[in-house]
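=== RUN LOG ===
request id: a7f3
mode: sequence -> structure
chains: 1
length: 187
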Amino acid sequence: MDLHPVLLGKLNEALMPFSAGGFTRRDAALPNVRGKVHAVIGMRRSGKTTFLKQLLTAQKQSRESELSLYISFDDDRLADVSLADLSHLIEEYYRRYPELRGRETICWYLDEIQLVQGWERFVRRIMDTERVEIVVSGSSARMLSREVHTSLRGRGIDTVIRPYSFREFLRHRGEEPSRGPRRWTPA
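=== RESULT ===
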């Protein structure tokens, strides 16, 4: 079976050079825990996708570009994507880069993955069978912290992205103070 044509296009796009320049740096960070699926969760419009793209940019600057891929499932043309299509996506990647299978850790950033029915089983399987690190994100009720832990059977660890803190707001406006206050006062 061939790879879903839209997924093929997204894979081709993911392998191209990428820069998430121009986005305000967030104070959030993924915990340094290997062997877990990192779930980036939070309310709608809080910056989850931007955060993933910032992580991807940092990865692509420190490693070879083809070792880190971002795929967004927030596309109406992917409404019928199945688990088999996700498997074909992985196989197509390794068809292009057979020398990487089992030798290099591939970082997959899967945005709005909850739109694919049964995504949890796919993620658990490739975590068990391939050398990968996976970061998923989404904002639906199925991506709540307790749901992620249940669906991934203890293999997930979450990072919550909230709307801008006051410091991030100041950073976005170019007004972030260079140092913190000497002491905190009620004012």
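=== NOTES ===
The chain has a mean pLDDT of 87.
Residues 3 and 101 are 19 Å apart (CA to CA).
=== END ===
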